[in-house]
Design goal:
Number of helices: 7
Helix content: 10-25%
Oligomer: single chain
Shape: globular
CATH topology: Jelly Rolls
Largest sheet: 7 strands, antiparallel
Distance between the termini: 33 Å
Length: about 230
């Protein structure tokens, strides 16, 4: 993957975890997810789209904001915010002093994004178009997600203006504007992120959770959002 810079290109990949800490995170999130399913950990998450109906999982209910957002225990929280950890050190280098964005449901959230035909991911948008405003998002994967089911990013779009619109019939957040221009003129890039890495993107960057038509697996990813403390 080409080395992109946050302020110049609108995104950047940084090392977030040691191998040991990522194993702790992975085990915690998988255990939490299967507990919410009400079943034992006997399936591969990447093939969730193939077995969720068999297990009678209500995907829409599972993916509601109240279920996806939560407050993790301290031993997980410390992996992100202990001053000795590389996540804290590297994030501080990228955006300076920050506050964690929390709308009251929890400061960390997960997503299960199934292949293209399920239409799980929201279309092109910018964080500054939504109620949160100037939010920096940090994303990392729990499973070994493929490139075609990764977050879609429009490099350098944080420097440009685009037509936008509120779609009242959307199944996603109705108070967040979405891109309303010519998609043929937009180049969406996707990247396979290493297991111990995180991706951060600018509040003004066009991005989407909508997957590529070539996607064949389910992505299990986590998001934490931050606001830069202005001087």
């Amino acid at each position: 993957m080409k080395k992109y810079k946050l302020e110049k290109h609108g995104l950047e990949v940084f090392r977030g975890f040691t191998f040991r800490d990522k194993i702790k995170i992975k085990n915690y999130f998988e255990k939490k997810l299967f507990k919410s399913f009400g079943i034992k950990r006997k399936y591969n998450i990447s093939s969730y789209h193939k077995w969720f109906k068999k297990e009678r999982i209500n995907h829409e209910k599972l993916m509601s904001a109240t279920n996806r957002h939560f407050y993790p225990p301290n031993h997980i929280k410390n992996i992100f915010f202990s001053k000795k950890k590389i996540f804290f050190k590297n994030l501080l280098k990228l955006i300076g002093k920050y506050s964690i964005h929390d709308e009251g449901l929890g400061w960390i959230s997960f997503r299960l994004i199934r292949p293209y035909e399920f239409k799980d991911g929201y279309p092109l948008s910018k964080k500054i178009w939504g109620p949160g405003g100037k939010i920096y998002s940090v994303i990392f994967n729990i499973n070994n997600a493929e490139k075609y089911n990764s977050l879609g990013l429009v490099i350098n779009s944080h420097k440009k203006k685009y037509p936008k619109k509120l779609f009242s019939n959307s199944k996603f957040c109705k108070s967040e504007f979405r891109f309303n221009g010519d998609l043929k003129k937009i180049k969406i890039d996707r990247f396979k992120i290493d297991q111990n890495d995180c991706l951060i993107f600018h509040p003004g960057l066009l991005h989407c959770e909508e997957t590529d038509i070539k996607s064949k697996s389910t992505r299990f990813s986590v998001e934490i959002r931050f606001k830069r403390i202005e001087k």
